Amino acid sequence: MADEDAVFDVIVIGAGPVGEIAAARVVRGGLTAAVVEKRLVGGECNYYACVPSKALLWPMELAYAVSRMPGLGLRGPIDTPAVLARRDEVVSNYDDSGYVDWVEKLPATFVRGHGRLAGPRRVEVTTPDGDVRGLRARHAVVIATGSAPDVPDVPGLREARPWTNQEATSVQQVPKRLVVIGGGPVACEMSQALHSLGALETTVIVRDGRLLSRIEPFAGELLALSFADAGIDVRFGRSPVRVERLDPGGPVTVHTDDGARIEADEILVGTGRRLAVDDIGLGTIGLEPEGPIEVDASMRATQVPDGWLYATGDVNGRNLLTHMGKYQARICGDVIVARANGRPDDLPSLRDTADDRGAPQVIFTDPQVCAVGLSEAQARAAGFPVRAVEYDLGQVIGALLQSPGYTGRAKLVVDEGRRVLLGATFVGPATVDLLHGATIAVTGEVTLDRLWHAVPSFPTTSEIWLYLLLECGL
Q: Is the pTM of this model over 0.85?
């Protein structure tokens, strides 16, 4: 006779940052929870993406800043082994026991294994030893399985065993020759990080005519100049047509559509991600197995009867950013608690509005690229009455104090009808600290006339707000 299912109020499949937050919120609200994870608890972000990539990029940023400042010239190259050791430290040497302890101290029940839906409110977990354990939810199942790197269908590419963000961020031996496919955040960040750590010949193949094509054009232009200054070879308007690797540990050859041939020691693919929903049992409840899982503003799946299924983070396709997934998880957990206890579930804090207005994003390249809300092109396509203003960050005394010849730019996108911000973009060294103020202004729909009275400190780069508002006619 099969073992009886273990019963919990809520079952969370996926124990990355998003799943952890969802579980924490339901437990905080007095419900019981089980958390299922096959791989490392803490998820892609903590081991192979956000956290380790920044551990690799931060020394590069410091080195660039110091090398630009008179009197503080950088002496010698970056100590790559020391940087990699620090990276290993911040990812806990790929040991997830600390995160497992955190989950269990919520308290929630942690189940190690591959979780799959097996009908309404039921989850089957295949454990590492091959056993199958049944779980049943009284109130809700939350899918928080995230996404995985996508490898395009280029002849020979998969056979060449390319790096993705996972291999790039966990690198133990930096290749001397590196070819990168893609012009988005992962490709740009890891190109610069690995180049600074010893990839002396770094070639970036970009299908589009610019880097970071979803952000304001000047962002990609300034970043391309930085790549050129560093000796990174960027080839715009090109695509790989064939990849060859004859020996498993040997060199790789990339053929591009202009007839060029690029030899490298490793190839890194940074062309996008696919939703991790292909083997979680969506078909058992009548959903398409490839996703995304469509949800309403409370994160509840819209195509599942009785409203017991929720999806947070990448799997719902709303926004593939960790901080936005964590935001959705807070909403999701609190909504589940409210509904389980018969309390109002329509409070403003229980609905996702941030995704519609534009999520903040930081690309930790040199220069940093920081954006929130809509770009000018997006705002015009949406039919807003748009006014866009730009200003040279290098003209702000606070920026010039950071280094002579500071290069950067800022832009606001304004809804002329309501006189509120639709979007903001800042590109330059150390611009990340300007972003949250812009996020508050965009999310809160603060009018330009009110922003005029938010006085920036002197001498800081935040004075850019004064100059941008002056450009708006205030």
A: yes
